[in-house]
Automatic annotation (TrEMBL):
Its EC number is 2.6.1.11. One of its GO terms (molecular function) is transaminase activity. This is Acetylornithine aminotransferase. Binds 1 pyridoxal phosphate per subunit.
């Protein structure tokens, strides 16, 4: 094969066109900084979309991965393995869960949760107890089942007949839920903070009501914590900051701090219906992934780390307020911990990507959550000085967008 110049145009030549990556190509990272092919440095407030919870190339994670790579890479689920059992034990010890199912992505964890809910209802109630209630602007993955459960039609339309019996309601709308839920409902799936849907947090009273209504109608409450779990909100899982306990919690993204892994957490009672052969995965529980995730869990699940996330949220909000005082571009800043969304006001509606591109020009990587929200999901161990430096770059980017309006 002749030498090929690895540049951004090669993406358009070789890759399926379902992504539109930025012109720069990151080639290495350290902590909350990355460098591109031209050795330009960027401050990273994306965290790989809330994945790189401990930044890039964390030395302790590199060490664990290297050690495990010299032992055992893959054995399949014909066997179990030590890293998987060690990680499962940590998850059970520090959450409500009694049983764990490992997968590779948040979509797969949510697929497992939805299948479990349907299966449990079929085994224990009636064949017509199949309705799943989900919420508009929710996001649960890209498999056909999970993307249909997600409340964004632009992601699920155009692929033919969708999985049936999924009802979508307005998030935080208790009256709508009370009117819709019934004894035919097998599950309610929701995020404690809608990430892709605009960084919109759940109302605590709504969460309590969902729990009560699920109890009343023998429905399973599924919390999709793919984006909010593993310390992102200042709690190990976001449900811990609410006055409820779900029946199922799904985790991915930050669980492996950059290495692909996901988990569905549930009770022994619910898990009992997934008997041998009813569900599976080739790579779930992979020793490499579980070894990295086990170390990441130890580093994230400390009082110091979780308290620091809440303190860094305060700093972010203060600095974003100062920027807004000068430029008047945000209607509000919402979210929790280090998953924050700056919501654009009426004047700048639809221009979130302009702020993203202007930030990249300043050496700052940020996210969007729809067309009207700039999203920040940095590493949990980002330093205060890096946050301040990032917000100085963001201020310049905001000025650039404002002056071009």
């Amino acid at each position: 094969m002749p030498d090929t110049q690895i540049t951004r145009p090669l993406f358009d030549q070789l890759m399926v066109p379902n992504y539109a990556p930025l012109p720069m190509i990151p080639v290495r990272g350290e902590g909350s900084r990355v460098w591109d092919q031209q050795d330009n440095e960027y401050l990273d407030l994306t965290g790989g979309i809330a994945v790189n919870a401990l930044g890039h190339a964390h030395p302790e994670l590199v060490k664990v991965l290297t050690e495990q790579a010299q032992k055992l890479w893959h054995v399949s689920n014909i066997y179990t393995n030590e890293p998987a059992l060690q990680l499962a034990q940590k998850l059970v010890d520090h959450t409500f869960a009694e049983k764990v199912f490992f997968a590779n992505s948040g979509a797969e964890a949510n697929e497992a949760a939805l299948k479990l809910a349907r299966r449990y209802a079929q085994d224990n109630y009636s064949k017509d107890k199949t309705e799943i209630i989900a919420f508009n602007q929710g996001f649960h993955g890209r498999t056909f089942f999970t993307v249909t459960a997600g409340g964004q039609k632009s992601y699920s339309d155009g692929f033919g007949p969708k999985p049936a019996d999924i009802t979508h309601l307005e998030y935080n709308d208790l009256a709508a839920l009370e009117a819709a839920i019934s004894d035919k409902t097998c599950a309610v799936i929701l995020e404690p903070l809608q990430g892709e849907g605009g960084v919109l947090p759940i109302c605590n009273q709504f969460a309590i009501a969902v729990r009560a209504l699920c109890n009343k109608h023998n429905a399973i409450m599924i919390f999709d914590e793919v984006q909010t779990g593993m310390g992102r909100t200042g709690h190990l899982f976001a449900y811990m900051g609410l006055d409820i306990v779900p029946d199922i919690v799904t985790s991915a993204k930050a669980l492996g701090a950059g290495f692909p892994i996901a988990a569905m957490l549930t009770t022994t009672k619910l898990a009992s219906c997934l008997t041998v052969g009813t569900h599976g995965t080739t790579f779930g529980g992979n020793p490499l992934a579980c070894a990295v995730a086990g170390k990441a869990f130890d580093l994230i699940n400390t009082p110091e780390m979780l308290a620091a996330v809440k303190q860094k949220e305060i700093l972010f909000r203060e600095l974003l307020t100062h920027i807004n005082d000068q430029f008047s571009v945000f209607k509000e800043v919402r979210g929790a911990g280090l998953l924050l969304g700056a919501v654009l006001n009426e004047k700048y509606q639809g221009r979130a990507k302009d702020f993203l591109l202007a930030s990249a020009e300043q050496g700052l990587l940020v996210l969007v959550a729809g067309a009207d929200v700039i999203r920040f999901a940095p590493a949990l161990n980002i330093s205060d000085n890096e946050i301040k430096a990032a917000m100085l770059k963001f201020k310049v980017a905001v000025r650039q967008v404002v002056e071009s309006a």
